[in-house]
Backbone:
């Protein structure tokens, strides 16, 4: 069973359904949207352009050096922290 | 590093000196003129010429592709069949450098040692390597594009074939339609992925990342007519130097450009059978098989119906 995690940060680049998020701690991580994610690839460029803080809920498949996004929302301004299980 | 062979020797340095500062104010306009010797203009046909005799298996192209396209590594680990750890083209690997080991001096071969086409004259326990950077061929008559029911796969203004991610519904029809096994579905997002020939870079006047990163110019990017001419000259040159097994695969009128595919916009110079590199010897369009398959199915149905009617009639008579 994969563990679901959450991270807050800013999306710095997007390619198709893949994007790089820099967390509040300055750690860059590669993500890809799951088919069940609430946004589509065409929504990502706007998030890159606006540099909005987002909260990403993800899991990490064992055979992939990237995280799969299950949920993504605008971050609560009060929320901080790299990972909450 | 791209090919600059056809550019007058003084033209490149002069233009390059315009951008000699370590920090540039912005993108270099038409940067591909400096790196590949070609101006990227919509409406023209672009592609890759991959000269496998120059490939050293450094995998810089794979890395550059993954970096530019933000593609993750997947299925990490040695395959057990080769020093290659990518294995094949996939939804997350749009370039794949194949490592083909040709064992030479087979101790059990006896008198036939070194005489077979697939062996070499190397001493025992030494080997030759064939290396080839495989990629989507961006076929002239692309079977994946023909199979796509949503119009997600389309031909760009640069004569390349690209999947539009916002339209792809993940039906997967393009996957078996591709005779080269290039297109793949990503299990995470459920959509088809493949090389875009760096569509976004072409629109910005940049050479594709893989060709730009190739340190030996094994991957050359350019306009298709120029590439074909350059490739034929290279084959002639190799033949003159004794490498008579060099030939083009996928160029107009050559092996690989078969089965109504027309030609391949990404074509190769090979020195062994296509199958040795994992390429089909005579790729075909899937749509060519629709009519025969449908005909066979209808004939089978008609035959079975006639047998059923005959049995039914015989039953009634008895």
Residues:
């Amino acid at each position: 069973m994969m563990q679901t995690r959450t991270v807050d940060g800013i999306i710095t680049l997007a390619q198709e359904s893949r994007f790089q998020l820099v967390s509040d701690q300055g750690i860059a991580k590669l993500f890809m949207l799951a088919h069940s994610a609430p946004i589509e690839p065409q929504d990502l460029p706007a998030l890159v352009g606006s540099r909005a803080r987002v909260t990403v809920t993800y899991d990490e498949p064992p055979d992939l050096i990237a995280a799969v996004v299950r949920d993504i929302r605008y971050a609560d301004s009060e929320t901080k922290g790299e990972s909450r299980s | 590093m791209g090919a600059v062979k056809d550019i007058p020797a003084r033209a490149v340095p002069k233009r390059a000196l315009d951008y000699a500062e370590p920090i540039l104010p912005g993108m270099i306009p038409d940067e591909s003129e400096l790196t590949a010797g070609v101006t990227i203009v919509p409406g023209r046909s672009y592609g890759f010429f991959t000269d496998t005799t120059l490939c050293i298996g450094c995998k810089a192209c794979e890395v550059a592709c993954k970096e530019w396209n933000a593609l993750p590594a997947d299925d990490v680990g040695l395959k057990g069949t080769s020093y290659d750890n990518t294995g094949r083209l996939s939804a997350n690997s749009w370039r794949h450098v194949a490592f083909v080991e040709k064992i030479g001096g087979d101790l059990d071969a006896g008198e036939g040692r070194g005489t077979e086409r697939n062996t070499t004259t190397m001493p025992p326990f030494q080997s030759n390597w064939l290396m080839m950077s495989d990629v989507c061929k961006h076929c002239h008559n692309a079977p994946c594009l023909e199979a796509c029911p949503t119009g997600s796969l389309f031909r760009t203004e640069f004569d390349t074939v690209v999947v539009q991610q916002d339209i792809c519904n993940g039906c997967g029809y393009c996957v078996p339609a591709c005779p080269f096994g290039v297109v793949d579905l990503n299990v995470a997002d459920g959509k088809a992925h493949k090389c875009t020939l760096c569509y976004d870079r072409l629109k910005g006047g940049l050479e594709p990342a893989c060709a730009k990163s190739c340190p030996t110019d094994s991957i050359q990017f350019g306009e298709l007519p120029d590439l074909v001419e350059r490739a034929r000259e290279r084959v002639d040159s190799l033949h003159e130097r004794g490498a008579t097994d060099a030939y083009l695969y996928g160029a107009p009128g050559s092996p690989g450009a078969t089965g109504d595919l027309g030609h391949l916009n990404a074509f190769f110079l090979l020195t062994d059978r296509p199958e040795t590199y994992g390429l089909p010897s005579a790729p075909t369009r899937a749509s060519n098989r629709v009519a025969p398959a449908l005909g066979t199915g209808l004939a089978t149905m008609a035959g079975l119906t006639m047998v059923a009617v005959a049995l039914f009639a015989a039953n009634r008579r008895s």
About this structure: Confidence is low (pLDDT under 50) at residues 79-85 of chain A.
